């Protein structure tokens, strides 16, 4: 039976209604990997039932997490495009429930930062302002795409997923669209990949369960074998015995 993969959605709050919106590329990536994508409505009271019924979770990209969630204030000069606090609170609760239930989790970009914050980690509020001589990790203008290499560490779960770097560190080309990044990893996470400027690009669980967070956007390059392998690993980990 194909596993059911819950996919979080963006939240847009309007005066008369709240909208959950999902980039279809996430669903297409799950389908290609052999899973069934299930959009997750951002309603807190549904969390227990969703965690029971779904086999794995994909935490998607989004806007910036307010620094108060990791006990900081916005730094001077920062241009933050904030995600809804309600989305952040809901997804922290959802992640913690999924983790307690030992459900496999893949988290992308904002989702990776969300998981890190949920586990007590912190973020760089702006890579360009806080990391000297950093690469460009996000487009300078709308419509352009940014790619850069990422080095995966030998002996990590991500290295095993890639398969072709088992004898040493390997490098893959990724599509990037984030101006924030993980600073201090949260509880139980270890670093598994970095970009050439030292920015943390992927972390994973130190334990046996499947928890992988990546700063790049594999759903946007799903025809690349390295991107497809990431979603295949989530689906494989989510299959019921």
Description:
The chain is of the alpha/beta class and about 240 residues long. The chain is about 25% helix and about 25% strand. It is built from seven helices and 13 strands. The chain has a nine-stranded mixed sheet with strand order 4-1-5-6-13-12-11-8-9, with helices on both faces. A two-stranded antiparallel ribbon has the order 2-3. Helix 3 links the parallel strand 5 (about 55-60) and strand 6. Helix 3 (about 85-100) crosses helix 4. The longest helix has 16 residues, at about 85-100.
Describe the protein's topology.
Elements: E1 4-8, E2 10-13, E3 18-21, H1 24-32, E4 36-40, H2 47-53, E5 56-59, H3 85-100, E6 105-108, H4 110-118, E7 123-124, H5 127-130, E8 146-152, H6 157-162, E9 170-176, E10 181-182, E11 189-194, E12 200-205, E13 211-214, H7 225-238
Parallel strand pairs: 1-4, 1-5, 5-6, 6-13
Antiparallel strand pairs: 2-3, 7-10, 8-9, 8-11, 11-12, 12-13
Helix pairs in contact: 3-4
Keywords:
two-stranded antiparallel ribbon, 7 helices
Q: Mean pLDDT score, rounded?
A: 90
Number of helical elements: 7
Shape: globular
For the sheet with most strands, the description reads:
9 strands, mixed
Low-confidence stretches: none
H/E element order: EEEHEHEHEHEHEHEEEEEH
CA-CA gap between termini: 10 Å
Q: Which range best describes the helical content: under 10%, 10-25%, 25-40%, 40-55%, 55-70% or over 70%?
A: 25-40%
Arrangement of strands in the largest sheet: 4-1-5-6-13-12-11-8-9
The count of strands amounts to 13
State which percent range the strand residues make up: 15-25%
Structural class: alpha/beta
Radius of gyration: 17 Å
């Amino acid at each position: 039976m194909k596993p059911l993969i819950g996919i979080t959605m963006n939240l847009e709050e309007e005066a008369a209604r709240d909208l959950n919106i999902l980039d279809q590329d996430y669903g297409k990536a799950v389908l290609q990997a052999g899973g069934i994508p299930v959009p997750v409505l951002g309603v807190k009271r549904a969390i227990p039932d969703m965690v029971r019924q779904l086999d794995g979770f994909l935490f998607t990209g989004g806007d910036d997490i307010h620094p108060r969630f990791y006990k900081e204030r916005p730094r001077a000069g920062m241009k933050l495009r904030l995600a809804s606090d309600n989305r952040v609170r809901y997804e922290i609760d959802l992640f913690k429930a999924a983790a307690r239930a030992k459900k496999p989790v893949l988290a992308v970009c904002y989702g990776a930062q969300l998981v890190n914050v949920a586990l007590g980690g912190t973020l760089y509020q702006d890579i360009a302002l806080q990391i000297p001589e950093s690469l460009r990790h996000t487009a300078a203008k709308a419509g352009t795409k940014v790619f850069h290499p990422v080095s995966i560490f030998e002996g990590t779960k991500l290295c095993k997923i890639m398969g072709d770097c088992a004898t040493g560190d390997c490098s893959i080309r990724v599509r990037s669209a984030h101006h924030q990044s993980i600073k201090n990893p949260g509880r139980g996470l270890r670093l598994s990949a970095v970009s050439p400027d030292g920015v943390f690009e992927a972390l994973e669980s130190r334990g046996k369960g499947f928890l992988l967070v990546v700063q790049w956007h594999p759903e946007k390059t799903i025809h690349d074998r390295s991107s497809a392998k990431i979603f295949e690993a989530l689906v494989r980990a989510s299959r019921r015995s």
